[in-house]
Structure formats: structure tokens, C-alpha cells
TrEMBL record:
Oligomer of 12 subunits arranged in the form of two hexagons. ATP binds at E184, F199, K200, Y201, R316. It comes from the Bacteria. It is found in: Cytoplasm. This is Glutamine synthetase. Coiled coil: none annotated. It catalyses: L-glutamate + NH4(+) + ATP = L-glutamine + ADP + phosphate + H(+). The keyword Nucleotide-binding applies. SMART domains: Gln-synt_C. Its cofactor is Mg(2+). Binds 2 Mg(2+) ions per subunit. Residues 108-444 form the GS catalytic domain.
Length: 444
């Protein structure tokens, strides 16, 4: 049940002197789209009568079936702390519906809701997610275009004056807090110009909404500081890329079902089955959690990003780490996703993978507490450690071969996603890159 009513929303709009409302939704690639309406149209929007043309949105529908309805989720009402000269702007995140009143199968938010419903039917009341998105800040040139000049030379946990992004980051945190975020930490990351802001875990739907809101805030505030924020996974060669580790746990009421005080690691059987499901389907869901050609430049040895399918409670090289907190904070941290992912789809496929592990009581392989990066291929094979896909092309093939992940997406989203990604791969594969010219032009 929504905690706000239509009357509440109308009242908030009046009290806050809101002039415009953005009805926000997301395309298949995780790009925020919105229809902006004046305050006079808000009652119509709250009656779910706002229509838009779905054929113009990536991965939605063909021209002949283009009418779609936006159904606002009233609990997502928020007023942007930055206004424009014409008055304040608020937003409502919407679900997308077909004209016949059924949810649209290609709406990423609906895909996550469907996975959450399955968890609920299995007796879990909440799937909690704590995301850790990283980003880079680059300077803008005099035309307002992003350069490759970093705004600082700081390193992990550095502080000003080395970290000139600190003021921008502080501004981002203050803005997020005004918008209802509970920010837990913000710091400089490993690479120069790289930052991380962590916010409190929430149920998956809210967490996915927050990730997209977070990206919007970061980009908006960075621009005010003359900087360009990018969530591209690996903008620079030779330094760490940007990840978005996803901390996950399942609850029944107030009880974290991943915790078992009698277990040596404090992990319940349910947690181990879930973990086994994630490991089993990791290769299948990587195209979703790491959706760009560029994503695979991050998933290489040597930069703390995982490239092997394994788990550990001690080690930062595997795909899954078990953070040390126990009790209500017991969780598993999946370390492969990057911030270019569509968060609704990423959380849906990881949840479905974990639930498959629980349903089939999958046994987790032994933990790998050694540094996997220093193992040779034979040792990895002996330990049953497989590799994550090395390219987007390989990841797409793994996705198509995994029925559980295909089912998580549903036929409509799967077909459109694969088609778009195969085109992307082909464009990359056929382009001649600077590296090739440097390498071959004079030699041959």
C-alpha cells in the first residue's frame, strides 16, 4: 500500500509551490526518460490517464502499438532541491502500462516487481540491497564538453587539498540528504578523480529507484561545479574502473534469513543456497550487470574487480565477498556489477539467480580464501573456479544459454535487449581503433 494518497500529493505540490512535475520512467538500457507536465495536469496524472508514445523509447514497442500509460508510484514523490527560474520541479517515478490496463512486459520496474513477487511467494517479505556506486569526475572544457583531465590526483580515502572533488562530493551528499537519502559514507576511491558514495540499504525496488535518482543528482551537481560525472565502467586505461557492488539479504519480517549464529561463518543454509545460485548463474547474468563493451575492460585482473566465479569471507578477488557484519547486517556482496547497468534488471536477475539456488537447495562450493589473481589456470580449474565472460559478445551468448535469467527478463525484454547489445558489439567489432593504427600502421 502506498503511504501517500492523491490528496497528499496535491497538498505537497501546493505547500512546496511546485510548478512542474516530471513523470519519470526508465527504458530497457536504464536511461531515465520523463514527461514533464505543468501543475494543472497533475490530477490527470494521478488518475493514471497520462499517455506517451512508447515507440520512441529504446526496447519498448513498435509504431503500431505505441500508446502507453504512465502510472505514478506516489511514494516516489520528491521535489528537486534545484529549481529553475519558472518555479520548483518535482518528480514521480512511474510504472508503464498497456492501454488495456495490464503492466507492460518491457518495463524494467515491472520486471523487478515480478521477481520480488516470486520471493514473496517463497515466504520472503523483503529483498534488501545496499548499492555502492562509483563514478569519475572530469573537467569540462570551455565549450562545456567533457575532457579527459581529472579534477584531482587523489587516491583511496584521500582528503583535501589532494581531493578537489571533495566540495563537489559534499554538495552531492547534501543534495541527496535533502531528497531523503540516508548517506552512510562518501570517500575518494582508488583512482585519481574517482569517488564513491554509499547510501543505506533499502528494499530492492526503492534501492533501484534510488540508484537512478543518485545518478541524476551526481551528474546535475557535478555540472554546477564545472565537472562531468561519468558512470562509464572504465574511462581510463591503467587505473581502476568503476563498480557498483551490490550488498544483498533476504528478510522474513524483522528476521534476516541469511544469518545463523550456529554456523562457523554466521551464514544460514538459505544464504549458502542463495550464494550458490548467484555463482551458478553469474555467467548468465553478466550481460545485464555489465552491459557495455567497455564493462569488460574493467573485469580484468589487477584492479580489484572480479573476473572469477568464486566466493570468500576474507578475500577481495572473488565475485562474492561476505562482509564481516553479522546479525541483521549479514549479507552477501556481489562485486561484479558496474554502474552502467539498469538497476531494475540487475537486481531482478541477481534475485532470480539466488532464488533458484534456494529452490533447488544448491550447495555452495568451498570458499576460496587465496588470492585468485596469483593462481594459474590449472589451479583455478582444480578449485572449480570459472571465469566471468571476457567480452560483451561472450556475455550475450551466456545470457541466451541460461533459461533462469531469460525467464527473469521475460521474452519481450530479452529479445529487445539482446538485439540492441548485438548491434552494439558489431559496431565496436567493425570499428578501427587507435590502438590498431599505433600497433600496425608502420609495422606492416
Amino acid at each position: 500500500m502506498s503511504k501517500y494518497s492523491k490528496e497528499d500529493i496535491m497538498r505537497f505540490a501546493k505547500e512546496e509551490d511546485v510548478r512542474y512535475i516530471r513523470l519519470q520512467f526508465t527504458d530497457l538500457m536504464g536511461m531515465i526518460k520523463n514527461v514533464e507536465i505543468p501543475l494543472s495536469q497533475l490530477p490527470k496524472a494521478l488518475d493514471n490517464k497520462m499517455m506517451f508514445d512508447g515507440s520512441s523509447i529504446e526496447g519498448f514497442v513498435r509504431i503500431e502499438e505505441s500508446d502507453m500509460y504512465l502510472v505514478p508510484d506516489l511514494d516516489t514523490w520528491v521535489v528537486f532541491p534545484w529549481g529553475n527560474e519558472h518555479g520548483k520541479v518535482a518528480r514521480l517515478i512511474c510504472d508503464v502500462y498497456n492501454p488495456d490496463g495490464t503492466p507492460f512486459a518491457g518495463d524494467p520496474r515491472y520486471i523487478l516487481k515480478r521477481a520480488l513477487k516470486e520471493a514473496e511467494e517463497m515466504g520472503f517479505t523483503a529483498f534488501n540491497v545496499g548499492p555502492e556506486p562509483e563514478f569519475f569526475l572530469f573537467k569540462l572544457d570551455e565549450k562545456g564538453e567533457p575532457t579527459l583531465d581529472l579534477n584531482d590526483q587523489g587516491g583511496y580515502f584521500d582528503f583535501a587539498p589532494l581531493d578537489t572533488g571533495e566540495n563537489c562530493r559534499r554538495d552531492i551528499v547534501l543534495t541527496l540528504e535533502k531528497m531523503g537519502f540516508e548517506v552512510e559514507a562518501s570517500h575518494h576511491e582508488v583512482a585519481p578523480g574517482q569517488h564513491e558514495i554509499d547510501f543505506k540499504y533499502a528494499n530492492a525496488l526503492k534501492a533501484a529507484d534510488q540508484i537512478l535518482t543518485f545518478k541524476l543528482v551526481v551528474k546535475t551537481i557535478a555540472q554546477k561545479h564545472g565537472l562531468h560525472a561519468t558512470f562509464m565502467p572504465k574511462p581510463l586505461y591503467g587505473v581502476a574502473g568503476s563498480g557498483m557492488h551490490a550488498n544483498q539479504s533476504l528478510f522474513r519480517g524483522k528476521e534476516n534469513v541469511f544469518y545463523d549464529e550456529k554456523d562457523e561463518l554466521g551464514l544460514s543454509d538459505t544464504a549458502k543456497h542463495y550464494l550458490a545460485g548467484i555463482l551458478k548463474h553469474a555467467r548468465g547474468f553478466t550481460a545485464i550487470t555489465n552491459p557495455l563493451v567497455n564493462s569488460y575492460k574493467r573485469l580484468v585482473p589487477g584492479y580489484e574487480a572480479p573476473c572469477y566465479v568464486a566466493w570468500s569471507a576474507k578475500n577481495r578477488s572473488p565475485l562474492i565477498r561476505i562482509p564481516s557484519s553479522r546479525g541483521v547486517s549479514t549479507r552477501i556482496e556481489v562485486r561484479s556489477p558496474d554502474p552502467a547497468t539498469n538497476p531494475y534488471l540487475a537486481l531482478a536477475v541477481m534475485l532470480k539467480a539466488g532464488l533458484d539456488g534456494i529452490k533447488n537447495k544448491m550447495a555452495a562450493p568451498p570458499a576460496v580464501d587465496r588470492n585468485i589473481y596469483v593462481m594459474n589456470e590449472e589451479e583455478r580449474e582444480e578449485n572449480g573456479i570459472s571465469n566471468l565472460p571476457a567480452t560483451l559478445k561472450e556475455a550475450i551468448e551466456c545470457l541466451k544459454a541460461d533459461p533462469v535469467i531469460c525467464d527473469a527478463l521475460g521474452e519481450h525484454a530479452l529479445i529487445h535487449f539482446v538485439e540492441a547489445k548485438e548491434i552494439e558489439w558489431d559496431m565496436f567489432r567493425t570499428r578501427v581503433h587507435e590502438w590498431e593504427r599505433t600497433q600496425y600502421m608502420t609495422l606492416y
